[in-house]
Amino acid sequence: MNFQTLLTSLEEGIFTITINRPDKLNALNKTVIEELSQTVDEINNNKAVKCAIITGAGPKAFVAGADITEFLSLNAGGGEALAKKGQEMVFNKIEQSTKPIVAAVNGFALGGGCELAMSCHFRLASENAKFGQPEVNLGLIPGYGGTQRLTQLVGKGKAMELMMTASMIDANEAKQLGLVNHVTTAEELLPKTKALLELIMTKGPNAVGKVIAAVNAYYDKSQDGFDAEAKLFGNCFGTDEMKEGVNAFLEKRKADFLNK
Ligand code: COA
């Protein structure tokens, strides 16, 4: 796939998306949002793609936020439309993807960058990563889901403090707060992320997708999470994948979920 602002590659089922505006610290302008939206469609529609990584180009930034140069021309309606469009085209679509999408945070993850990482199913960070929602510095609040997902991940009090003070936290504090799962050296970030995805790819992909849907149901006010879980659990029964997994256990062999 050819993009203006992204680099992509597909290797052994892992689709890697690299936001590639390093001279602007990979800030999310309109083009990045539109192109990211296309890549999420590719993840969902291309059978060869089993899972994905989102990362940033260069040694300094994952994504340093929405592109601030696009803000001054907007009025209230334009601001709301920008937030809604981004939420629907990218952030909610990533969260709801049934194939795992993981953020490899390699530097600044600020504003929309922190929101992009938080919309992924989980996050790894390099030691030099920095997280924050600094929108109040600009007289703004997060608009790509940050007020909701940061609260989900770190709890109300800490989310309030981070968003009200615009403070940046480092990778280790982000790990302590539950915002990231693992902290690595810069060199180890992609290998460690890939190793986790390789492990996930040995599991039943249908079941992995249903884990994502069931966990997301916890946060979805329109449905009861326990009912959603029971339904998704039921939907696993009778599938070739479930037969393979259960038979492999009973036959004391490793399950082979490929093409099931
Ligand atoms: N939107 C647009 N451009 C951005 C940007 C953003 N969110 N973040 C960084 N850039 C640009 C800078 O304007 C600069 O461009 P220039 O070289 O043409 O002047 C370039 O990226 C490098 O950034 P710079 O500020 O010079 O790097 P730094 O190391 O001094 O500072 C940050 C790094 C991340 C602390 C600083 O860039 C920053 O505060 N960025 C904005 C963060 C933010 O508020 N994000 C939320 C937006 S809602």
Name the overall outline.
globular
Oligomer: single chain
Bound molecules: coenzyme A
- The number of helical runs is 10
Question: Any low-confidence stretches, pLDDT <50, length ≥5?
Answer: none
Reading side by side through the largest sheet, how are the strands ordered?
Answer: 1-2-3-5-7-10
For the sheet with most strands, the description reads: 6 strands, mixed
Separation, N- and C-terminal Cα atoms: 27 Å
Descriptive overview:
There is one protein chain. The protein has 260 residues and is an alpha/beta fold. Helix content is 47%, strand content 16%. Strand 1 (6-11) and strand 2 (14-19) form a beta hairpin. The model has no long low-confidence stretch (mean pLDDT 97). The structure holds coenzyme A. Coenzyme A binds next to strand 6. Coenzyme A (COA) is lined by residues 24-25, 27, 64-69, 108, 110-112, 134-135, 137-138.
List the helices and strands and how they pair.
Elements: E1 6-11, E2 14-19, H1 30-45, E3 51-56, E4 61-63, H2 76-96, E5 101-105, E6 108-110, H3 112-119, E7 122-126, E8 130-132, H4 146-154, H5 156-165, E9 169-170, H6 171-177, E10 182-184, H7 189-201, H8 205-218, H9 225-236, H10 240-250
Parallel strand pairs: 2-3, 3-5, 4-6, 5-7, 6-8, 7-10
Antiparallel strand pairs: 1-2, 8-9
Helix pairs in contact: 1-2, 3-4, 4-5, 8-9
Bound molecules: coenzyme A.
